[in-house]
Amino acid sequence: MGLDIVLATRNKKKVEEIKRIVRDMPVTIYTLDDFPECPEVEEDGKTFDENAVKKARAVSKYTKMPALADDSGLEVYALNGAPGVLSARYVGGNANDKRNYEKLLNEMKSVKSEDRGARFVCCIALAFPDGKVETFIGYAEGRIGTEPKGSNGFGYDPVFYPKGHERTFAEMSDKGKDLLSHRGAALGRLYDFLRRGL
Asked: What is the domain range of residue 175?
C-alpha cells in the first residue's frame, strides 16, 4: 500500500538522507519545496519527541497530507547529555555544522578518551490529517573523536565514531552510514509500521 508523505524539514541534507533510506518503502515523498507557503514551526520542545511531533502535526494540518518530521541530535555523556535538542543551534544564532562541532571539541578538550561516549538520537513522527501521530526512535552509540575527520554527511558526523568502528560517520559511504545511523534505525521502525499496513 503506497502512502504520500510530506517531509517536514527544509534541511536539504536531511531530505536527501531520508529519501535515500526510504527509497524501497511504499511511499511517495514530497518536500516543503512543494508547499512554499507552509509556515515555519518553532522547535521549542524539551525533547526530540516533542519537537518531531509538533513539526509533523503542523505540516500535516497545513498540507492535509501525512507528514513526517524528524528531530535528532547528539547526546554526550560527559556533558550531561548536551548538546541534545540544541544540537543544531549549539553555538547560538550564528550556528553552522563546523562551529557547532568545534565548540563541542573545545568543551571536551580535557575529557579522557574512555569518557568520550555519546549517542545520536533520532525521533521520527508521522502525523496524519486526522490528528493521529506515530513516533519511531533510533539510536547510534559511539564516541567523540578529538578532531574532525571526513567530508561526507553533515552535523556532528566528522567527530562521531560509531561503536565498533574506527572511521567517523563523515568518513563512511552513504550506505555505510545508513546501516549504522540513528535515522536509519528510526526509519527502519517506520518501515515495519508501513509494511504492517498502517
From this structure: 3-195
